[in-house]
Amino acid sequence: MIFSYPVFRFMGMQSSLPLPSWKTVLTQIIFYFILEDFVFYWGHRVLHTKWLYKHVHSVHHEYATPFGLTSEYAHPAEILFLGFATILGPALTGPHLMTLWLWMVVRVLETVEAHCGYHFPWSFSNFLPIYGGADFHDYHHRLLYTKSGNYASTFVYMDWIFGTDKGYRKLKALKSGHMEDSGKEM
Question: Which among 46, 55, 73, 78 has a CA at the least distance from the CA of 151?
Answer without folding.
Answer: 46
